[in-house]
Amino acid sequence: MIDNFRHQGSRRILAAAIKEKGIENEDVLEAIATVPRHFFIGAGFDDFAYNDVPFSIGCDQTISQPSTVARQTELLDVKKGNKVLEIGTGSGYQAAILDHLGARVYTVERQSDLYFKTKALLKENYPRIKCFLGDGYKGLAAYAPFDRIIITAAAPFIPQDLVAQLKIGGKMVVPLDVEDDASQQEMILIEKLSEDNVVQTKHGMFMFVPMLKKVK
Ligand code: SAH
User: Fold this and answer.
1) What are the angstrom distances between the C-alpha of 125 and each of 1, 30, 74, 135, 208?
2) pLDDT tens, 161-175?
3) Domains observed in the chain
Protein backbone atom coordinates (compact mmCIF):
# COMPACT_ATOMS: atom_id res chain seq x y z
CA MET A 1 0.00 0.00 0.00
CA ILE A 2 1.18 3.47 -0.83
CA ASP A 3 1.57 6.26 1.70
CA ASN A 4 2.51 9.40 -0.23
CA PHE A 5 3.22 13.05 0.68
CA ARG A 6 -0.41 13.97 0.11
CA HIS A 7 -1.56 11.34 2.62
CA GLN A 8 1.10 12.45 5.09
CA GLY A 9 0.16 16.12 4.72
CA SER A 10 -3.55 15.35 5.16
CA ARG A 11 -2.74 13.41 8.34
CA ARG A 12 -0.85 16.32 9.86
CA ILE A 13 -3.82 18.60 9.11
CA LEU A 14 -6.16 16.01 10.68
CA ALA A 15 -3.99 15.80 13.83
CA ALA A 16 -4.01 19.62 14.09
CA ALA A 17 -7.82 19.67 13.73
CA ILE A 18 -8.14 17.05 16.47
CA LYS A 19 -5.88 19.08 18.75
CA GLU A 20 -8.22 22.05 18.17
CA LYS A 21 -11.07 19.81 19.38
CA GLY A 22 -9.36 19.47 22.76
CA ILE A 23 -7.07 16.43 22.58
CA GLU A 24 -3.97 17.34 24.57
CA ASN A 25 -1.89 14.13 24.69
CA GLU A 26 1.00 14.74 22.27
CA ASP A 27 1.72 11.01 21.86
CA VAL A 28 -1.87 10.41 20.75
CA LEU A 29 -1.70 13.34 18.29
CA GLU A 30 1.59 12.01 16.94
CA ALA A 31 0.00 8.56 16.46
CA ILE A 32 -2.89 10.13 14.51
CA ALA A 33 -0.35 12.05 12.40
CA THR A 34 1.61 8.85 11.71
CA VAL A 35 -0.72 5.83 11.30
CA PRO A 36 -1.98 5.71 7.67
CA ARG A 37 -5.75 5.64 8.19
CA HIS A 38 -6.33 5.17 4.45
CA PHE A 39 -4.87 1.64 4.74
CA PHE A 40 -7.91 0.74 6.88
CA ILE A 41 -10.53 2.13 4.52
CA GLY A 42 -11.42 0.40 1.24
CA ALA A 43 -9.16 1.14 -1.72
CA GLY A 44 -10.32 4.14 -3.71
CA PHE A 45 -11.62 6.04 -0.68
CA ASP A 46 -8.33 7.72 0.31
CA ASP A 47 -9.96 11.13 0.03
CA PHE A 48 -12.29 10.30 2.92
CA ALA A 49 -9.63 8.87 5.21
CA TYR A 50 -8.39 12.16 6.63
CA ASN A 51 -11.66 13.91 7.33
CA ASP A 52 -12.83 13.75 10.92
CA VAL A 53 -15.81 11.52 10.15
CA PRO A 54 -16.73 7.84 10.70
CA PHE A 55 -16.71 5.72 7.53
CA SER A 56 -18.37 2.49 6.42
CA ILE A 57 -16.04 -0.54 6.33
CA GLY A 58 -18.72 -3.01 5.12
CA CYS A 59 -20.58 -5.65 7.16
CA ASP A 60 -22.75 -2.81 8.60
CA GLN A 61 -19.72 -1.57 10.55
CA THR A 62 -17.82 1.70 10.68
CA ILE A 63 -14.29 2.83 11.38
CA SER A 64 -14.72 5.30 14.25
CA GLN A 65 -14.28 9.03 13.73
CA PRO A 66 -10.60 9.97 14.24
CA SER A 67 -11.36 12.45 17.04
CA THR A 68 -13.33 9.71 18.85
CA VAL A 69 -10.39 7.30 18.48
CA ALA A 70 -8.09 10.04 19.81
CA ARG A 71 -10.34 10.80 22.80
CA GLN A 72 -10.79 7.13 23.74
CA THR A 73 -7.04 6.54 23.40
CA GLU A 74 -6.24 9.61 25.51
CA LEU A 75 -8.60 8.44 28.26
CA LEU A 76 -7.09 4.95 28.14
CA ASP A 77 -3.71 6.50 29.10
CA VAL A 78 -1.61 3.78 27.45
CA LYS A 79 1.97 3.28 28.61
CA LYS A 80 4.67 1.59 26.50
CA GLY A 81 4.59 -2.18 27.03
CA ASN A 82 1.01 -2.18 28.40
CA LYS A 83 -1.00 -5.27 27.57
CA VAL A 84 -4.18 -3.91 25.99
CA LEU A 85 -7.41 -5.72 25.10
CA GLU A 86 -9.56 -4.13 22.39
CA ILE A 87 -13.15 -5.26 21.86
CA GLY A 88 -14.30 -4.63 18.26
CA THR A 89 -11.35 -4.95 15.83
CA GLY A 90 -13.39 -3.60 12.90
CA SER A 91 -10.98 -2.01 10.42
CA GLY A 92 -7.97 -2.45 12.74
CA TYR A 93 -7.23 1.30 12.87
CA GLN A 94 -7.67 1.70 16.65
CA ALA A 95 -5.50 -1.38 17.20
CA ALA A 96 -2.79 0.14 14.97
CA ILE A 97 -2.90 3.40 16.96
CA LEU A 98 -2.42 1.42 20.20
CA ASP A 99 0.43 -0.59 18.65
CA HIS A 100 2.08 2.63 17.53
CA LEU A 101 1.94 3.85 21.15
CA GLY A 102 3.92 0.79 22.20
CA ALA A 103 1.06 -1.32 23.56
CA ARG A 104 0.94 -5.10 23.22
CA VAL A 105 -2.46 -5.33 21.55
CA TYR A 106 -4.97 -8.21 21.74
CA THR A 107 -8.07 -7.45 19.69
CA VAL A 108 -11.37 -9.37 19.45
CA GLU A 109 -13.89 -9.24 16.59
CA ARG A 110 -17.20 -11.11 16.45
CA GLN A 111 -17.77 -11.11 12.67
CA SER A 112 -15.68 -13.71 10.86
CA ASP A 113 -15.48 -11.88 7.51
CA LEU A 114 -14.17 -8.70 9.17
CA TYR A 115 -11.89 -10.74 11.40
CA PHE A 116 -10.20 -12.51 8.46
CA LYS A 117 -9.92 -9.38 6.32
CA THR A 118 -8.45 -7.22 9.08
CA LYS A 119 -6.21 -9.96 10.44
CA ALA A 120 -4.53 -10.19 7.01
CA LEU A 121 -4.11 -6.41 6.80
CA LEU A 122 -2.64 -6.18 10.30
CA LYS A 123 -0.34 -9.16 9.78
CA GLU A 124 1.26 -7.31 6.89
CA ASN A 125 1.47 -3.84 8.45
CA TYR A 126 1.30 -4.29 12.24
CA PRO A 127 2.50 -7.88 12.84
CA ARG A 128 2.70 -7.55 16.63
CA ILE A 129 -1.09 -7.19 16.98
CA LYS A 130 -2.85 -10.41 17.98
CA CYS A 131 -6.31 -10.92 16.44
CA PHE A 132 -9.05 -13.16 17.86
CA LEU A 133 -12.48 -14.18 16.61
CA GLY A 134 -14.83 -14.30 19.56
CA ASP A 135 -17.39 -12.67 21.78
CA GLY A 136 -16.13 -9.42 23.23
CA TYR A 137 -18.50 -9.71 26.18
CA LYS A 138 -16.37 -12.63 27.37
CA GLY A 139 -13.00 -11.00 26.65
CA LEU A 140 -9.91 -13.21 26.56
CA ALA A 141 -9.69 -14.97 29.91
CA ALA A 142 -6.76 -17.10 28.71
CA TYR A 143 -4.60 -13.97 28.20
CA ALA A 144 -5.80 -11.96 31.21
CA PRO A 145 -5.05 -9.84 33.13
CA PHE A 146 -4.76 -6.69 31.00
CA ASP A 147 -3.37 -3.25 31.90
CA ARG A 148 -5.96 -1.58 29.71
CA ILE A 149 -9.25 -2.58 28.04
CA ILE A 150 -11.02 -0.55 25.35
CA ILE A 151 -14.48 -1.31 23.96
CA THR A 152 -15.06 0.28 20.54
CA ALA A 153 -18.75 -0.59 20.11
CA ALA A 154 -21.76 0.70 22.08
CA ALA A 155 -22.13 -1.43 25.20
CA PRO A 156 -25.62 -1.85 26.70
CA PHE A 157 -23.99 -2.49 30.12
CA ILE A 158 -20.48 -2.79 31.53
CA PRO A 159 -19.39 -6.41 30.94
CA GLN A 160 -18.27 -7.72 34.32
CA ASP A 161 -16.15 -10.46 32.70
CA LEU A 162 -14.00 -7.66 31.28
CA VAL A 163 -13.71 -5.79 34.58
CA ALA A 164 -12.54 -9.10 36.08
CA GLN A 165 -9.81 -9.33 33.38
CA LEU A 166 -8.42 -5.90 34.30
CA LYS A 167 -5.29 -5.67 36.47
CA ILE A 168 -5.42 -3.81 39.77
CA GLY A 169 -4.40 -0.28 38.75
CA GLY A 170 -5.80 -0.93 35.27
CA LYS A 171 -8.11 1.28 33.21
CA MET A 172 -10.99 0.46 30.89
CA VAL A 173 -12.87 2.79 28.51
CA VAL A 174 -16.45 1.95 27.50
CA PRO A 175 -18.99 3.82 25.37
CA LEU A 176 -22.10 2.99 27.39
CA ASP A 177 -25.66 3.29 26.04
CA VAL A 178 -27.58 6.14 27.59
CA GLU A 179 -30.61 4.86 29.46
CA ASP A 180 -33.74 5.04 27.23
CA ASP A 181 -31.69 6.13 24.18
CA ALA A 182 -29.30 3.55 22.69
CA SER A 183 -28.51 5.93 19.81
CA GLN A 184 -26.12 7.80 22.11
CA GLN A 185 -23.30 6.62 24.34
CA GLU A 186 -21.61 8.22 27.30
CA MET A 187 -17.87 7.53 27.49
CA ILE A 188 -17.11 5.84 30.81
CA LEU A 189 -13.63 5.48 32.28
CA ILE A 190 -13.34 2.62 34.75
CA GLU A 191 -10.36 2.52 37.11
CA LYS A 192 -9.77 -0.63 39.12
CA LEU A 193 -8.10 0.65 42.26
CA SER A 194 -8.47 -2.66 44.10
CA GLU A 195 -10.53 -5.84 43.70
CA ASP A 196 -13.51 -4.19 45.40
CA ASN A 197 -12.87 -0.52 44.61
CA VAL A 198 -13.74 0.15 40.97
CA VAL A 199 -14.31 3.83 40.17
CA GLN A 200 -16.31 5.14 37.19
CA THR A 201 -16.16 8.64 35.69
CA LYS A 202 -18.07 10.13 32.71
CA HIS A 203 -16.38 11.78 29.73
CA GLY A 204 -18.91 13.10 27.23
CA MET A 205 -21.33 11.83 24.61
CA PHE A 206 -20.42 9.85 21.47
CA MET A 207 -22.05 7.60 18.83
CA PHE A 208 -20.98 3.99 18.17
CA VAL A 209 -22.37 0.94 16.35
CA PRO A 210 -23.90 -1.55 18.81
CA MET A 211 -21.95 -4.23 20.63
CA LEU A 212 -23.70 -7.48 19.72
CA LYS A 213 -23.39 -11.15 20.57
CA LYS A 214 -20.97 -13.22 18.48
CA VAL A 215 -22.26 -14.33 15.05
CA LYS A 216 -21.38 -17.20 12.66
N1 SAH B 1 -12.08 -0.33 16.57
C2 SAH B 1 -12.72 -0.33 15.27
C3 SAH B 1 -14.14 0.17 15.36
C4 SAH B 1 -15.06 -0.77 14.69
S5 SAH B 1 -16.79 -0.57 14.93
C6 SAH B 1 -11.90 0.41 14.24
O7 SAH B 1 -10.90 1.04 14.60
O8 SAH B 1 -12.23 0.35 13.05
C9 SAH B 1 -17.13 -1.79 16.16
C10 SAH B 1 -16.70 -3.20 15.87
O11 SAH B 1 -17.10 -3.99 17.00
C12 SAH B 1 -17.35 -3.86 14.66
O13 SAH B 1 -16.37 -4.41 13.84
C14 SAH B 1 -18.25 -4.95 15.27
O15 SAH B 1 -18.39 -6.10 14.45
C16 SAH B 1 -17.51 -5.26 16.55
N17 SAH B 1 -18.31 -5.88 17.60
C18 SAH B 1 -19.60 -5.65 17.92
N19 SAH B 1 -19.99 -6.43 18.96
C20 SAH B 1 -18.89 -7.18 19.30
C21 SAH B 1 -18.66 -8.19 20.29
N22 SAH B 1 -19.61 -8.60 21.14
N23 SAH B 1 -17.43 -8.75 20.35
C24 SAH B 1 -16.43 -8.36 19.52
N25 SAH B 1 -16.61 -7.40 18.55
C26 SAH B 1 -17.82 -6.83 18.44
Assistant:
1) 9, 18, 23, 25, 26
2) 999 999 999 999 999
3) 54-206 (3.40.50.150)
Tens-place pLDDT, residues 100-138 = 999 999 999 999 999 999 999 999 999 999 999 999 999
The model carries a pTM of 0.97
d(CA 26, CA 4): 23
Read off the pLDDT of residues 137-152 as tens digits, 9 standing for 90 and up.
999 999 999 999 999 9
Query: Does residue 186 contact residue 176 with C-beta atoms inside 8 Å?
Result: yes
Q: Which atom of ligand 1 is nearest to the CA of 69?
A: 7
CB 158 within 8 A of CB 151: no
Residues with CB under 6 A from ligand 1: 61-64, 87-88, 90-91, 93-94, 108-111, 114, 135-137, 152-153, 209, 211-212
Catalytic residue among 64, 67, 112, 183: 64
DSSP letter at 155 equals B
Task: Please name the residue whose Cα sits nearest to atom 4 of ligand 1.
Answer: 90
